[in-house]
């Protein structure tokens, strides 16, 4: 009897791609559902090799399957030597030490690409909101108070601007922010400037008419609106702090659809209260799901509940891509047969493979 490689499924069962799951995925793999609900029990299960020599971890829904907490130096060494890939929904990966996984010759693949359209649309809305003060206007309209309505109607016209011709400073120039740059340039007529630790190809810069900056300080100084698109790690936590805000032009704006802890919210509150920053928009929050009460009280701050990628299309493709990543990596005998479609830890993985 031929034994199929085992995939350990964490979190809720699949919801959308049943045909692919039944015809493509489970025909290649023996899928076992993890039954633990807390870190201690999961660690014990790994120590006892409860699930055997599984070849992959499969997390198709980013809102479930996180019961064990951080994937760190306590948890990762307990994974079996047969493990080839951790394939997860979601674009973020700050809850997993992807370098340590790579050092163990384990790929980590996220849901990159699945949420690009939705997140870039969300950021575009937020850019419009911080220039046009849409949140202030909505709050006034919802009072159903004619006097508040009239006063806000008059005020908005004196404090709002069109985005056209203004500099959009894109911090982190990946797939999502490139889509946003295209939309902001074509639809809103904005000037695109960007900063990233790796410069984009000249062809990409030409297509987007994007200007590269070699330092964060340099781009902050010329920005009319800053939009954040970096992962959260030890280098980017509190990246935008008091010092960064001080470098920005008086009256500039900031949008964050990346990770809450990239922007120091206490510093943001100070910058808004002083008037140095005229408006902000946050889809992500420093102490999420707790929203800053000070920011929530400000009419010049747009706040949403981390719904940047919150579209059904995103969920469907997160689930599908996690399966496709495992299929691309794990062969019929559990061996490596290729690379994932959306690898996160290529450098760490390839460095380990050469040892």
* CATH structural architecture of the largest domain: 3-Layer(aba) Sandwich
Shape: elongated
Could you give me the name of the CATH homologous superfamily of the largest domain? NAD(P)-binding Rossmann-like Domain
Give the strand line-up of the largest sheet: 8-7-6-9-10-11-12
Number of strands: 12
CATH class of the largest domain: Alpha Beta
Order of helices and strands: EHEHEEHEHHHEHEHEHEHEHEHEHH
What is the CA-atom radius of gyration, in angstroms? 23 Å
Count of domains:
2
The fraction of residues assigned to DSSP E strands is 5-15%
- Uncertain runs are none
* Structural class by sheet pairing and helices: alpha/beta
Describe the structure concisely.
With 355 residues, this protein is of the alpha/beta class.
Structure description:
- It comes from Penicillium cosmopolitanum.
- It contains 14 helices and twelve strands.
- It is α/β, with parallel strands linked by helices and 355 residues long.
- The chain has two domains: 150 residues, NAD(P)-binding Rossmann-like Domain (Rossmann fold), CATH 3.40.50.720; 188 residues, NAD(P)-binding Rossmann-like Domain (Rossmann fold).
- A seven-stranded parallel β-sheet has the order 8-7-6-9-10-11-12.
- α8 links the parallel β7 and β8.
- α4 crosses α7 and α5 runs antiparallel to α6.
- It is elongated, with a radius of gyration of 23 Å.
- The two termini are 35 Å apart.
- The relative contact order is 0.16.
